[in-house]
Amino acid sequence: MSELKSDYTEIIVIRHSETDWNADGRIQGQLDVDLNDVGMQQGAALAARLSKETKISAVYSSDLKRAFVTAEIIAQCCGMLVPVKDPDLRERHMGDLHGIVFNEADKIKPEAHKAFVSLKRDQEIPGGGGSRNQIYDRCTSALHRIAKKHRGERVVVVTHGATIEQIHRRGSSNGMSSGKVLNTSVNVFHLSEEDKWSIISWGDVSHLDGVDNGQVPSC
């Protein structure tokens, strides 16, 4: 387990474990949905993995419970840490699309769906929904604060799919799409004192290999 250099922070950005709404393809946004049984197993497998890697100094999480419960599972395995809630790590507000199965959204809420798929980054979603620029600003500001506080340390941030897409945009040198962000995927960033962001690894879900067969390792 190598020591980190003091001029950057290693941030492990993780999407929360699975919920029934994830499994159904239903849009959660900022609605507060519980993890399902598979999600609890995914969290345990992820926590066991992280507990065997370089020491984690802190765990931060969105205040939505699907993220925070995932963070609690990790924190228990990694030195009994207490997760810190940060509302700036929340999912995008999805407005009129909340609670709708995504594949039906264009028929049920066509205007909201049109706004969601728009390429305009300042496009808000009808019904109080946010824009991509809004989520980009708040989540990248949150990571900047966390990095500044934990120079030379390794920390975990548990958040949401759309949030991670915007974090990827900030870290990517060419602004390319992150692709689909899977539940409990591990995405490692280095944030330097000069506010330079680097993506070290992306989309690792190797810890889930045994979950479908009920083989969940312990801490």
TrEMBL record:
Residue sites binding substrate per the record: 15-22, 66
Gene3D superfamilies registered for this protein in UniProt: Phosphoglycerate mutase-like (3.40.50.1240)
Segments crossing the lipid bilayer: none
InterPro entries hit by this protein: His_Pase_superF_clade-1, His_PPase_superfam, PGM_Phosphatase
Active site: 16, 91
Family the entry assigns: Belongs to the phosphoglycerate mutase family.
Protein name: Phosphoglycerate mutase-like protein 4
Species annotation: Forsythia ovata
